[in-house]
Amino acid sequence: xxxxxxxxxxxxxxxxxxxxxxxxxxxxxxxxxxxxxxxxxxxxxxxxxxxxxxxxxxxxxxxxxxxxxxxxxxxxxxxxxxxxxxxxxxxxxxxxxxxxxxxxxxxxxxxxxxxxxxxxxxxxxxxxxxxxxxxxxxxxxxxxxxxxxxxxxxxxxxxxxxxxxxxxxxxxxxxxxxxxxxxxxxxxxxxxxxxxxxxxxxxxxxxxxxxxxxxxxxxxxxxxxxxxxxxxxxxxxxxxxxxxxxxxxxxxxxxxxxxxxxxxxxxxxxxxxxxxxxxxxxxxxxxxxxxxxxxxxxxxxxxxxxxxxxxxxxxxxxxxxxxxxxxxxxxxxxxxxxxxxxxxxxxxxxxxxxxxxxxxxxxxxxxxxxxxxxxxxxxxxxxxxxxxxxxxxxxxxxxxxxxxxxxxxxxxxxxxxxxxxxxxxxxxxxxxxxxxxxxxxxxxxxxxxxxxxxxxxxxxxxxxxxxxxxxxxxxxxxxxxxxxxxxxxxxxxxxxxxxxxxxxxxxxxxxxxxxxxxxxxxxxxx
Length: 526
Known about the structure:
Layout: H1 3-32, H2 36-73, H3 78-118, H4 127-138, H5 141-156, H6 162-189, H7 193-221, H8 235-266, H9 272-307, H10 311-338, H11 340-348, H12 355-368, H13 372-386, H14 392-442, H15 450-476, H16 485-510, H17 515-522
């Protein structure tokens, strides 16, 4: 299957998920607004997601997918490969699940202390118990979504990307239903914001059960039939742990980054956590569609080329991924930066989320998206290390980035507040990218070819022209952004349409996009 087709499958479903997530946040902002209660809810929601990204999507996937693929495809006899893969996944599952249960039990008991560490001192006597309750309700989600990640890795190894890319849609649909139900209760029975927030917290765990059932069904369809046995620390499970540990530490640097960010946001005015969350939701839209899709799609192919000493093939896949990533990410970053307040107002403003909240969130978004190309490049470059079973180098890069982030946040937060926190994140991300590129070049693994740099420069020119067009177009539609639904939708379509026409028109005209290159990207990788 071609890189573009793989990315299209993953990215398309991820886009559906992100759009559903955007709808969820639109409803969330109107139902709950930006207040101390929503800050408590978002703070609690971040905690299980930190561990999900650390143990499941990050470290585990990086180690499991290449090992599982090797067993599945490493034999001339497909039946023997399938049997070895089944056995390996069963051993991993049987050890993985008890560890997850123990982890959740420890954090359920320690949750008051965890929330206290992340809270403003002295803690707010009203919102502190809420944050503890919300976190305890949602933390078991890590068990469910970690098992989902295990099954997703198995399916990705046979190029069945759709189920794994689609499961986040379930969470968004369930949370939208919970929000609408909560608003209905608020209108009919006078339910408080706190009661609605409790209902949404329970919906998170309920959605995890549905996601697990969805992925389990597809693993059965592919013939893997995962099952639980008495835990055994086999040599292969031990090797998986050894490979995953550095990746977990590296992922830990990023997650520590998230928790440090949360800690500093809690020192600022009420609503700061919510402003960052809403801004990051828009930032995550292109990051998820482009960065995560590319990262997921290229890892199996890179692993195959690296394992076969096919440097030319590995370099081609890496260059294709970078080119495709920048082709889509650079204009997205420019558009989000220039139209930040307009987009936030159109999408989130209403109900308990007023125009002042929209302006504050827009400022955060304008700063945050300056790092969007860097966030995507990290996702695209790290698989080059994982394909070589090198999980140590991304660890070093992540901790250097973390150090720069903390130093930057201490320097910027006093003068710039929540916007300073966003700028610090951007600086750390670009340092991460620079380190990864330098290491790849020094080791002879990959050096960006001049022709690719030239093409990216042309993409920058096209994006700059698009930005200029948006700068003037945005002011013409000011009255539409906070008007009715159809006016907002019309303004959104007008901005996106204008951006697309200008960017892609100029990109084709100056050679930032080459038809022959597109044909290359659609070819099956071999």
